[in-house]
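User: I'm preparing a small set of examples for a lab meeting where we compare how different chains pack in three dimensions. I only have the primary sequence for this one, and I'd like the structure in token form so I can line it up with the others. Please keep the answer compact; I'll paste it straight into my notes.
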Amino acid sequence: MLMFLLPGTALGAGRAKVALSAASPVLLECVVDAAQKSDLPLAALVGILAAERGEPGEALSNSNGTWDMGPFQINTCHVNELVRMGIAPDLVLRDGCVNAYAAAWLLRKEYERTGNIWAAIGAYHSRNPERRAAYVAKVKDHLVRLRRVGLFSLLPYGGQVQ
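Assistant: Understood. Below is the structure token output for the 162-residue chain.
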């Protein structure tokens, strides 16, 4: 689906990767605002961001034919629903703040479905029980590291605060 938007795919570690110039970085203020507006724990979004480690303008292919876009690696399987809400896929891909709001929407949707923040975090990544459990463990590891050494250890941009 993104192939027509994203020229110049490069293969690496079994996944195709494409990169466009970023429209804007993900800002901490956007992540905080997205968490507040979605009534979610900020730590949940920060943990997901650290686990995903994507970048604005970057998309990675998946074996099922979908792509993961931007800092929070929003899967293209959600594009139709995002478009119905007025969110353009190009902005999800290239704008870090739009990506953060899309991630908060997705996590909130999973939280409403599951009623449990950890189940929602796992479902954010996968519906497969083993993959969900591994993802939750990964997010928890990042949050432990955050508590121990601070926010800079989690930032996907080489420790740079935007």
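A couple of notes for your slides: The CA atoms of residues 48 and 92 lie 16 Å apart. Residues 129-149 form the longest helix (21 residues).

User: Perfect, thanks.
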